[in-house]
Specification:
4-stranded mixed beta sheet; 15 strands; globular; alpha/beta; 9 helices
Length: 290
Amino acid sequence: MYDICSIGHITRDKIVTPEKTTYLSGGTAFYMSYGISRLPGKVNYQLVTKVGDDTRGEVGKIKAMGIDTVCYPSSHTVYFENRYGADSNNRTQRVLAKADPFTIDDVSGLEAKVFHLGSLLADDFSPEVVENLADKGAVSIDVQGYLRKVVGQDVQAVDFKDKERILTRTSILKLNEHEMEVFDSTGDPRSVALKLAGYGVKEVVITLGSYGSVIYACGKFYDIPAYKPRHITDATGCGDTYSTGYLYCRALGAGVADAGRYAAAMCTLKLEHSGPFTGTEEDIKRVMMG
């Protein structure tokens, strides 16, 4: 039995910033696996992914770090292009290739206390897959993919298909300041959190970029400040890094506020360079101490 099972596609990412263009692997599964590998090994963690032949080498690197990994074949690897302007909170995306969705057969044999679904596109995880996992453990979802429709190569924002069916089986939901507008046009994260909790979501985690994050759990709001980075290099993967720190701490029994602060500090360190989190727990504690 794993404490956390992260399920999601590893991607190929083309990251374009005003300073440079970088080619990296990415995706929730990628960022979470590298992030977990840098933290004290107190959490029993598993990665389940699905990639094309061109990304098998990246999966091998993750296995070499000691991560228990299940990798299914796919006709293609997801290939994203992320373009950032001067404001790192804003980006535009294109999808240059798409991977096969996860199926009931892919997940039926998995066992974990928490299943974290790193959705990248709307059809990655069907309601049937979510329901299968929710029957075995708590389901944590990064909502981003459910709100993305690919038209040609462009990513367009869409409403959450099968929203009620999926959210009623979701224990933890992570979303950002742009994604929350799908659920409530007021732009008020507290209003959004209450609406999502109404579906039965136990912990609603809303990240607000440089403004911090808001978490609603057990009838209480937690305002988590953002820690100022020394410099900003690349915001890609920050949301996934937040989920990594948050779920890691919660798996160890930490309270919501402490888990949120730990996750925020991990994000600050991640912002300072391209690629996944490479710091240590000592670095995280240093950031939290200010």
